[in-house]
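DM between two lab members

TW: hey, do you still have the Archaeal/vacuolar-type H -ATPase subunit C entry open?
JB: yeah, one sec
JB: this one, 337 aa:
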Amino acid sequence: MNFSGLKRKIPKDYPYMYARISAKRAKLLDERDYDDLLKMEPNQIAKRLEEGEYRKEIDQLGARYDGVQLVELALNRNLSNTMRELSEMAPEPLSGIIEVYLRRFDILTLKRLLRWKKGSSNRDSKDMFIPISRYSFEELSELMEKDYEQIVEDISFPESRVDYQGFIDSKELSKVENSLDKAYSAELDQLCQEVPSKRFRKFMEQELEHQNLVTALRLKKYGYEAEEISKHFVNGHQTRLLTEIMEAENLEEAMDLVVKSGRAKSTERLEELEHELEADRLQNALTMVHAEPLGATSIIGYVVAKQIEIKNLRMLIRAKETGLQNTETIKKNLVIA
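TW: and the structure you got?
JB:
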């Protein structure tokens, strides 16, 4: 699909799409909502979510599950339903842009599945069953039945102009994962080059830099050298900040560079710094929802914000289940703009 037509003409259904995105943006949970949820037990949280955007999924699953399990399953299903709804309601070529962006979930699913097949993941298989983009629930179930080699051989995204299989030159797990990242990076680069919106390209570059930034800091923590760190980046674009972090003497110096860049306030722990970076990312995404009303940026901004809301709720309900964290600690771990 060619995206260059976005600038020449605004289809009549774009304003409708923007109105739907704005309505969904208004229903995202804010700090006051989280404060209320923090006072509740798991079944009360499920009841509260049922009164809002998660009603459909809670109602569908409520007869078979309750408490933490009900909320977790409802969150997964809601994320899947929301992303599928966005793809279906968007006119072309916006739907194609959404599909490319959401492919990151397919890549993540494939990685988890391959790690599970190799026995290097302790996660329950049901956690991988979140059909968001390319794969349906049935297709994911079929993949689960295949062996590792067959899954690698069957990796394919027919709707993409990037040949993912062409990037895979080894079946070694780490190399397959790296190949998938490089193929997806190539597809994102292609998308950014073709969408005639400077704001969209900037937003996507910020998203990629955020991902690379977190990767660089985590590897710095374990003493990786610059050359090795760069091999783990999701694309070849290397900003000045990333270069400085890779060349920093140690993690402390790298964290200071992030603080000086204005992305985070003074912090002593990497986990706190990552949390501040995620909050900065959420604020940027929410701003983008209204920054370019009749374009792709508003949709991708909402997708990022929705994804963070799901992560927040999943973390909150798990913390409530274990009871190991007090309310203040749980709130501190929530990403709130």
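TW: got it. Residues 296-322 form the longest helix (27 residues). The chain is about 70% helix and 0% strand.
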